[in-house]
Amino acid sequence: MQELNVGLIGGGFMGKAHSLAYAAMPMFFWPAPAMPVRKVLAEANDELASTAAKRFGFERSTSNWREIIDDPEIHVVDIATPNNLHAEVAIAAAKAGKHIICEKPLSSTTGDAKAMYEAVKDAGIVHMVAFNYRRTPAVALAKKYIEEGAIGKILSFRGTYLQDWSADPDSPLSWRFQKSIAGSGTLGDIGTHVIDMARYLAGEISEVNAIMRTWIPERPVQSGGADLLGTSKGGGGPRAAVDVDDEVITMLKFQNGAIGSVEATRNAYGRNNFITLEIHGTEGSIYFNYERRDELQVCFASDEGDRRGFRTVYTGPAHPYGAGLWPIPALGIGYGETKIIEAYDFFKAIAEGGTVSPNFADGYQIALIDDAIVESAETGAWVAVESIQG
After folding, report:
1. Are 91 and 145 in a shared domain?
2. Which residue segment(s) compose the domain that 154 sits in?
3. How many domains does the chain have?
4. What is the full per-residue pLDDT of the chain (390 aa) written as tens digits?
């Protein structure tokens, strides 16, 4: 079985999630398409790198990410850094012929996203952007139903991503609140996940009409090097400006004639990771709530009138990815499993010489959608979405 050496850049929350996936993927999907070898981890300094490498099971560490790019033994570069660092690393990795998985959003600017897309296209390597929520088995099952025609022609899509981790104005100024690092706020951080699933399930987006708001204009400056994700009090120290959005709501038009909406906020008290999708078609409807991620709600127009309504399908071995996960439906799918499935599809594409989605083309297209949303929020008008297909 082929072994593929991984160089991970970034030892924070996403580094932990990716490392778990590399360790567990062969346990779930056996025989594995390839064996990930956790070879080297890069962080901002030697101490952070050494600690993260020991914690996440990597053979060695470095404080210079370019050592990973220059290492001929490394086959896969995993980018789990803040958004503004994605482009430089990815372009260098592509030029070195490394396969790349990059956390979302693809980059902090559309120009960088375009450059990243062109670099991987020229290099001919396998590339993936880590919109892992679409790999929840219930979402993949919804895709299966749609492709089979079970709900007919899609008429409308409604998606939300609601959180409350930044609703407290005294939570620290994470890098996610700073445009120079993140590129955008709620739109890029969580809204892109729902936009990705809208494209995946309902089709390509052609026009948008949006409202964006920043509810908390300044926050306490964060102390220490670790990003606190706004989960603790900032104290009584100095405060600095927030220059990204806290909330976005946008109407959508799809190329296939469907209509829809997306709402995303990090200021919704009582909502934790509330990702919902509702899709209506001429022959039925689908509803999904990530906080109940083993369940897919479906209603088919062909049901008799005296029993028509949403039924619950609990995902398990009979459903997408089910054979590799747990042997009993509704036994429990978590965030980690979506990353394990993501790793499986990524390494399968490398081993078989194929492609995987979402990839950098998808990431670049979502950046163009984000640009249209921002422009619409500024002008109040419908804005057409530029397509990378021309």
Report:
1. no
2. 134-334+365-379
3. 2
4. 899 999 999 999 999 999 999 999 999 999 999 999 999 999 999 999 999 999 999 999 999 999 999 999 999 999 999 999 999 999 999 999 999 999 999 999 999 999 999 999 999 999 999 999 999 999 999 999 999 999 999 999 999 999 999 999 998 999 999 999 999 999 999 999 999 999 999 999 999 999 999 999 999 998 765 666 655 665 667 999 999 999 999 999 999 999 999 999 999 999 999 999 999 999 999 999 999 999 999 999 999 999 999 999 999 999 999 999 999 999 989 999 999 999 999 999 999 999 999 999 999 999 999 999 999 999 999 999 999 974
Strands 35-42, 259-265: pairing is: unpaired
CATH number, domain containing residue 330:
3.30.360.10
The answer as to whether 353 is a domain residue is no
Question: 325: Cβ–Cβ under 8 A, 6 or more apart, which residues?
Answer: 28, 137, 317, 333, 337
Structure tokens at 27: 């346990």
Q: Are 127 and 167 within one domain?
A: no
Residue 125 located in a structural domain: yes
The reply to whether 86 falls in a domain is yes
Q: Are residues 83 and 166 in the same domain?
A: no
Name the helix (H) or strand (E) containing 69: helix 66-70
- How many other C-beta atoms can be found within 10 angstroms of the C-beta atom of residue 360? 24
Q: Are 198 and 358 in contact (CB under 8 A)?
A: no
